Amino acid sequence: MAEKKALTGNEAVALAMKQIEPDVVAAYPITPQTDIVQYFSNYVADGKVKTEFVTVESEHSAMSATVGAAAGGARAMTATSSQGLALMWEVVYIAASSRLPIVMPVVNRALSGPINIHCDHGDTMGARDSGWIQLYSESVQEAYDNLIQAVRIAEHPDLQLPVMVCQDGFITSHGLENAEILDDETVKRFVGEYKPRFSLLNPAKPVTFGALDLQDYYFEHKRSQSEAMKNAGKVILQVAEEFKKLTGREYGYFEKYMLDDAEVAVVALNSTAGTAKMVVDELRQAGSKVGLLKPRVFRPFPAKELAETLRGLKVVAVMDRADSFNAYGGPLFNEIRSAMYDTPGPKILSYIYGLGGRDIGPADVTKVYDDLLEIKKTGRCDSILNYLGVRE
Amino acid sequence: MATLKELVKKPGILSPGHRLCAGCTAPTLVRQVLMAVDTPVVIGNATGCLEVSTTIFPQTAWRCSWIHNAFENAAATASGVEAAYKSLKRQGKIKDEFRFITFGGDGGTYDIGLQSLSGAMERGHHMLYVCYDNGAYMNTGIQRSSATPRGADTTTSPAGEKVPGKPANRKDLTAIMAAHNIPYVAQVSPSHWNDVVTKVKKALDCGGAAFINAIAPCHRGWRYPIEDGIEMARLAVDTCYWPLFEVVNGEWKLTYKPREKKPLVEFLKPQGRFKHLFAPENEHIIKEMQEQVDRNWEALLKRCGEA
Amino acid sequence: MSTENLPGWKDLPAGGLILEPGNAENLETGEWRSSRPIHDKQKCINCLFCWVFCPDSSIIVEDGKVVGIDYKHCKGCGICARECPPKVKAITMVPEGE
Question: How many angstroms separate the CA atoms of A291 and A264, rounded?
């Protein structure tokens, strides 16, 4: 049973957390994630969840307590944004290397400095090599659906890896949209009961978590972590397949929009993909063969599948809502361009846009498509690295 | 009151074969703390000597479940384990009665872990945090911490030509923890094993958050003869540099009063880290340190209703 | 450090866990010793102070009586000899090899 509801992204994520009903949630408020913690506090106060809610004094402790809880055999969650994720940094890596299947909604927000509370992807892009699986969400619906799937992905025996579920701060987190919400029982059945591999709380089998590795073992442990990430792609698709049977909604590594016969395309994460779809529709009506690719899974990076999908295009713009400060191109651009290296394929450009919540409207995206069409026509490209929507 | 004849019958939770220095008093303290445990226990450990030396992969000296996360978050990590326990117990998924003890050195407790400790104590998790205070960052090579006594020569507060060791006084962490209004706070010394065992039992059964601060002499950092670790701890108690007391639900109580309060120099003299203070131009520092100890002791006696 | 004969990554429990509690006992830290405690049963009054203060759990006690030293683990710090009551002096330290 499902019902349509008008919800903000934060409400939907909090609701999914209520339905998942983790054993432990340890979280700290930060704009624009705060509502999630508040909604969840209400569920706890009203006795609607059995969850032990730990109102920590910082995000560092939020992730630390979540790691402790997961090591104690609990299904454990937290949520954060921006500086919160930055403060957690150290422990984010430890969660992954300890192979603890923690699920964490992240409401994307720019990193300081200067301090800014609005959307960009600098926070989660910075955490791209922390060993977490990263799922990105265009809409309220996707944030909700991704969160529910994330539990199954994280806890899969071949993975045991933590998952970040990202949505755009304010744009999605505070924007009201209609979403189809599953009933509690369906969600509970889908995520199933959590059976930890090891627990600190099994007196028959004491276990040591977090031992010191020297030169003789560290590399092997990292290699095994890397294998789990290799396995993640397959699991993500399996879980998506099951989810589709339940809801009819389709999820993969990425979404293709009018891409099959397109000559030029934009690659964009999260809510910007929604704007781009509108632009694609308009340009298509005017006869331009344009398309869109919206990655959902950034970690693991579906390099092979992306290369196969993009190879037939002439020109591609990878739009990054984060700068790598490498004077070369954004993080998504770098990975996609690297993935295309062995494939004869399109010219690929980097567009950095929307930092600190700078609006990205249809006119901006149209400009990108216009650039691409022009390059396709003339074969002339002045700059690989472009900044979109910034005052010169 | 437990007797050694009884305690010796209990299985040791910390195995031999750990790689702490010969003569380190931290494992002695840990053994004494664990002598008070009668249930399954999960140990948390901040990064530090005790952590690195007891769990070098693939060996662990812990016969119980144990978790190390990072340096500053041992208390937060333990609070998460305790939260998991509460939740799973409530759901009937765990039957056993567990206790939670976390160890951190003074660096991981007084300094970098203070926020996480404060948070965990304020939230009232049913856990005991034990700080083994050896008065510096010994694991990284004897750098000063906020627990380092004034005047001590450490690698980051060296006794130099112009600056005679650490200029600042130590922080009174035990009082800070008492100010959290938690059910149990105490100060102990491994020289007084019975006091340790008694206090840990009280702490574990206080029903909420408990903190114990323990002096743990380090012969590498303090520079005294290797066999004198317990004697140094005893001198710290007898000079009233490290008084033994407890704060039960806000009520301060002295648990040991030296028959005669020894002069502080008896504690300072055997330690190489204070050697430079005995030069004529620095003797005023010793005098001031003694005055500080006297003031603290008088204040403690008042708080404990003994003066 | 030769690591060739150690287990490969597929043979290690994921997440760096150690699943054998207390297996550090297999390490012979007694090799560190430069002097060794000698326990005299005749003099010993079995106060067990040596046992309660030993950092390395190396005082062997049976039925409430000290029966010897675990030389496999004892690092020779001498705390036991130092803490043995002065009137008893049942433990003396002698240099290794004597």
Answer: 6
- For residue A130, report the phi and psi dihedrals to the nearest 5 degrees: -85, -5
Q: In this predicted model, what pLDDT tens digit does every residue of C50-63 receive, in sequence order?
A: 999 999 999 999 99
Least Cα separation, residue A84 to chain B (angstroms): 15
Q: Give A271-276's long-range contacts (Cβ < 8 A, gap of 24+).
A: A271/A119, A271/A138, A271/A139, A271/A167, A271/A168, A271/A171, A271/A172, A272/A168, A272/A319, A272/A321, A272/A353, A272/A354, A272/A360, A272/A365, A273/A138, A274/A138, A274/A139, A275/A360, A275/A361, A275/A362, A275/A365, A276/A365
pLDDT band at C98 (very low <50, low <70, confident <90, very high): confident
User: What is d(CA B73, CA B70) in angstroms, rounded to the nearest whole number?
Assistant: 6
Dist. CA B205–CA B38, nearest whole Å: 11
Rounded Cα gap, residues B178 and B251, in angstroms: 9
Condensed to tens digits (0 to 9), the pLDDT of residues B231-283 reads 999 999 999 999 999 999 999 999 999 999 999 999 999 999 999 999 999 99
Q: Which of A55, A256, C61 is nearest to B79 (CA)?
A: A55
Considering only CB atoms, which chain B residues are within 8 Å of C16?
57
Q: What is the pLDDT of residue C1?
A: 62
Per DSSP (E only), the strands in B75-206 are: 99-105, 128-133, 184-188
Residue C17 CA neighbour count, 13 Å, CB half: 22
Q: Is A33 left (phi over 0), alpha (psi -120 to 50) or beta?
A: alpha
Asked if C17 and A223 come within 8 Å (Cβ–Cβ), the reply is no
Best interface-test mutation with B: which of A212, A215, A220 has the largest number of B CBs within 10 A?
Answer: A212
- Residue B266 in 3-state DSSP? helix
CA A271 to chain centre: 12
B137 φ/ψ angles, rounded to the nearest 5 degrees: -80, 85
For residues A162 and A127, the answer to whether their CB atoms sit within 8 Å is no
- Angular region, B13: left φ>0, alpha ψ -120 to 50, beta rest: alpha
Cα within 13 Å of Cα(C72), Cβ side: 9
The tens-digit pLDDT sequence of chain B (307 residues) is: 789 999 999 999 999 999 999 999 999 999 999 999 999 999 999 999 999 999 999 999 999 999 999 999 999 999 999 999 999 999 999 999 999 999 999 999 999 999 999 999 999 999 999 999 999 999 999 999 999 999 999 999 999 999 999 999 999 999 999 999 999 999 999 999 999 999 999 999 999 999 999 999 999 999 999 999 999 999 999 999 999 999 999 999 999 999 999 999 999 999 999 999 999 999 999 999 999 999 999 999 999 999 8
Residues 13-72 of C with CB under 8 A from B: 16, 18, 20-29, 32-33, 47-49, 51-58, 61, 64, 70, 72
CA dist., res. A257 & res. C33, Å (int) = 72
- pLDDT, tens digit, for every residue of A254-282? 999 999 999 999 999 999 999 999 999 99
Q: Hey, which residues does B251 pair with through a beta bridge? A: B248
pTM value is 0.98
How many angstroms separate the Cα of B81 from the Cα of each of A64, B179, B292? Answer: 10, 25, 40
**Tell me, what's the pLDDT at B307?**
83
* CB-based contact B83 A203, cutoff 8 Å: no
Q: Counting one residue from A and one from B, how many pairs have CB atoms under 8 Å apart?
A: 167
Residue indicated by tokens 């954004």: A330
Shortest Cα distance, chain A CAs vs residue C5, angstroms: 10
Contact assessment for residue B141 and residue B156, using Cβ atoms and an 8 Å cutoff: no
Q: B285 vs B134, B151, B261, B288, CA distance in Å?
A: 21, 7, 20, 5
Count of beta carbons in the 10 Å neighbourhood of residue B98 = 21
Q: Please report residues of A whose CB lies closer than 8 A to that of B120.
A: 61
HSE-CB at A169 with a 13 A cutoff on CA atoms is 31
Q: Packing angle between helix A140-155 and helix A9-20, nearest 10 degrees?
A: 30
